[in-house]
């Protein structure tokens, strides 16, 4: 994959050493192309990637509700999003809802949120590998999602995910969103997140 493949706006991670292309290229755009479809095969690949994520004791707590644009499930997920997210996410090719199963027959699944996070990151990176982008959202109404999809008590919606083809920032109809889209990305320095010897002592 080249940088050209992830145009229009590449906001590659600035790293102190080269990373795998899908990790370096991934970011969370809001400008999505309303005409490009996420194909059945691509969607299947995203969910296979999620399925093969690791989890504590292989408890596999991640579940997904999935709808492609034009399908009723898409509109029903869209309807649960906060307005600020709905404003741009309606142009996605697919919308997903990441749900944790919090219990199995042995009791509470340990670290179920961690498990869904790992599965969703697999899904997001596979999207990048497919030439798509993915944007996760905590800004949605979990209770509405519960009602809308008849979730049982032991199923906890955690995040919505918009998947699609990236578009030019200027296609966003709100100037603040265009500005945000073009804002540089930032992260803690490596020395602030990786320690050795004692807490707080930079490993790098
Ligand atoms: C669990 C989670 C929830 C998020 N919720 C939202 C959201 O509701 N709306 C939004 O626009 N972005 C949301 N984001 C995107 C983050 O703001 C974004 O990942 C972060 O700023 C880092 O930027 P990057 O993904 O482009 O590297 C969320 C991301 C994650 C992982």
Account of the protein in words:
It is built from 8 helices and 6 strands, in the order H-H-E-H-H-E-E-E-H-E-H-E-H-H. The chain has 204 residues and is an alpha+beta fold. Strands 1-2-6-5 form a 4-stranded antiparallel beta sheet, sandwiched between helices. A hairpin with a 2-residue loop joins strand 3 and strand 4. The chain starts with 20 loop residues before the first helix and ends in an 11-residue tail after the last helix. Flavin mononucleotide (FMN) binds next to strand 5.
Q: Percentage of helical residues?
A: 25-40%
What are the segments in which pLDDT stays under 50 over at least 5 consecutive residues? none
Mean pLDDT: 96
Q: How much of the sequence is in beta strands?
A: 15-25%
Total number of domains: 1
Main sheet? 4 strands, antiparallel
- Which cofactor or ligand species appear? flavin mononucleotide
Number of distinct helices: 8
> Which class best fits the helix and strand makeup?
alpha+beta
Features:
204 residues; alpha+beta; NADH Oxidase; 4-stranded antiparallel beta sheet; two-stranded antiparallel ribbon; 8 helices; 17% strand; globular; binds flavin mononucleotide
List strands and helices in order, with pairings:
Elements: H1 21-25, H2 40-51, E1 62-68, H3 72-78, H4 83-89, E2 94-101, E3 103-104, E4 107-108, H5 112-129, E5 133-137, H6 142-149, E6 155-164, H7 175-182, H8 190-193
Antiparallel strand pairs: 1-2, 2-6, 3-4, 5-6
Helix pairs in contact: 2-5
Bound molecules: flavin mononucleotide.
Flavin mononucleotide binds at residues 27-28, 85, 136-139, 159, 185.
């Amino acid at each position: 994959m080249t940088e050209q493949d992830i145009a229009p706006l590449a906001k590659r991670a600035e790293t102190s050493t080269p990373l795998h292309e899908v990790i370096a290229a991934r970011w969370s755009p809001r400008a999505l192309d309303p005409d490009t479809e996420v194909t059945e095969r691509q969607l299947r690949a995203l969910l296979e990637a999620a399925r093969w994520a690791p989890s504590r004791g292989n408890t596999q707590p991640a579940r997904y509700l999935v709808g492609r644009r034009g399908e009723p499930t898409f509109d029903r997920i869209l309807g649960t999003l906060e307005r600020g997210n709905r404003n741009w996410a309606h142009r996605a090719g697919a919308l997903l809802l990441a749900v944790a199963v919090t219990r199995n027959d042995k009791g509470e699944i340990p670290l179920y949120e961690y498990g869904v996070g790992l599965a969703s990151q697999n899904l997001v990176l596979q999207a990048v590998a497919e030439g798509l982008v993915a944007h996760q959202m905590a800004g949605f109404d979990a209770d509405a999602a519960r009602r809308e999809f008849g979730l049982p008590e032991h199923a906890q919606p955690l995040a919505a995910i918009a998947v699609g083809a990236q578009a030019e920032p200027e296609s966003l109809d709100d100037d603040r969103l265009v500005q945000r889209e073009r804002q540089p990305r930032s992260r803690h320095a490596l020395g602030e997140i990786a320690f050795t010897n004692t807490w707080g002592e930079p490993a790098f």
